[in-house]
Write a structure and sequence with these properties.
Two copies of one chain form a homodimer. Chain A contains twelve helices and eight strands. In chain A, helix 2 packs antiparallel against helix 11, helix 7 (about 160-170) runs parallel beside helix 8 (about 190-200) and helix 8 runs parallel beside helix 9. By secondary structure, chain A is an alpha/beta fold. Chain A has helices at about 10-20, 25-40, 60-70, 85-90, 105-110, 115-130, 160-170, 190-200, 220-230, 255-265, 275-285, 295-300; strands spanning about 5-10, 45-50, 75-80, 95-100, 140-145, 175-180, 205-210, 235. Chain A has two domains: about 1-80 and about 250-315, no CATH class; about 80-235, Aldolase class I (TIM Barrel, Alpha-Beta Barrel), CATH 3.20.20.70. In chain A, strand 3 (about 75-80), helix 4 and strand 4 form a beta-alpha-beta unit.
Amino acid sequence: MTQRDVLISEVGPRDGLQSIQTIMPTAAKKAWITATAAAGVAEIEVGSFVPAHILPQLADTAELVAHARLIPGLNVAVLVPNFKGAQAAVASGAHKITIPLSVSETHSLRNVRRTHVQMLDEVRQISALIRSLPVAERPHFEGSLSTAFGCTLEGEVPERRVLELAVALMEAGCDEVGLSDTTGYANPAQVRRLIRSVWSAVGRDQLTGIHLHNTRGQGLANVVAALDVGLTTLDASLAGLGGCPFAPGASGNIVTEDLVFMLEAMGLRTGIDLDALFALRELLQQALPDEPLYGMTPLAGLPKGFVPASFMNRQP
Amino acid sequence: MTQRDVLISEVGPRDGLQSIQTIMPTAAKKAWITATAAAGVAEIEVGSFVPAHILPQLADTAELVAHARLIPGLNVAVLVPNFKGAQAAVASGAHKITIPLSVSETHSLRNVRRTHVQMLDEVRQISALIRSLPVAERPHFEGSLSTAFGCTLEGEVPERRVLELAVALMEAGCDEVGLSDTTGYANPAQVRRLIRSVWSAVGRDQLTGIHLHNTRGQGLANVVAALDVGLTTLDASLAGLGGCPFAPGASGNIVTEDLVFMLEAMGLRTGIDLDALFALRELLQQALPDEPLYGMTPLAGLPKGFVPASFMNRQP
């Protein structure tokens, strides 16, 4: 049994691919998912159940869930924008369903054309659907508070709104809430503060993960803050896939490779084999030859004599 | 009087310029130093007193010290590799003199062709020289423990060696020691641990600053760790000047712009005007048209409605 101190949720196949124009062939996605799991990644967000005309890059999500479910021990996660997407997600057999709720209502209207009230109604419908299933077949249902650290449209997002919506999501039937720095606005002090506040509002077990972006280079700094407080699930994307085109070197999501290196160096076990993870970049580059790959550790190499925490006890 | 919670020491004119082949004209360096101070940076490492045939990029250090000393309130710092360099530094009137002592003796021999014993002898000579000056004219004298977090030649550097050499530097007459992650090997857990250990060995007031690199993307994460423990002086380089050519996107020093954004967002006052800092990049690009500039915040822009901590109380 692999021991893990931190769960890395690889969101590249969803957040990475939805941010680029190129459509990755389904076979390449399957190979990526298989190799990612083989490298020791225990959770992968394989896609999003959105209409194909909106995100053709993710049109094969059901097929990817079916593929990923065959990998022993892998937690197969998907995103859904609404009840209809959740129906497809449930039908596909995904283990975890995340619905984003933008704390900025302006962003919510722009992104999914729904108010908070309308989104919470979708959440209630999804919860009812999940509860209608036999207990053993129910997916884990997360409500992710996007733009929780600020919004490019509204600017500062009041902490009070984040807490109100965290409570509303739990009351509407989510198993858990998540925090998402959609805009790359978060700073370490705010990360610590907001996690503690959300814990006070909904309970410590109801927030375990955070989705950080690296738009302003603050991704890993914010991870340190999240770890300090006690979060244990971190989203990241291989090679920072889907980086911001306006900011060279600025990946969108935090780079899985740099994150895993940091955690393993800190003595926190991820269960992930860094060399196998680095090797995955080649697979990604072949499938997406025109996309830039981010991440510094794979290029700089591991420190001389480096022993990752996950493999310390396995040394002879 | 500017209130500062953290002192940023801009090392671009020294560490940045020594890492690139292009020689920046002295006039451009002076303009850079002047504009950096005008942006609110209170300490600048303007150069290094090394023989011109070794680092022709820094041959004008004495002239830069003379220039920088005319800027009111600016702490003018220089690096010296040995006693001879320190003589020149003292003659120039620098306010702060830093001598690096590589914890890895292999690295020390490779870098300055001196053993630890020989380097400590240089330190003693420098200390005697400084103590021969009238108190008011004595520069602050720092011994910087380079490769303190690991060495590309020796690999892991025993913490015991770091502590022994920290004590030895203080006994040889330094006013203070510094920690330097020359190789970009440091991780946040190690940063916290080593700072506390050095404090135990030499006293808390004898270590206030850290010099971090971003080779593996861990720079700001390590800053968070250093701040947590209580360090208050951070080295950084504008635009991450002198980035590692083998790792695109990997700056050498941490990027001043991203660091200042993080600190100000966290509520820590640097006294630095972010917009003025961003504007400096153009000056740098004009003087070094072939060098890549790193840093994400200047390209992504500040968050909508962002108010830096340094300017909060100045709002109407």
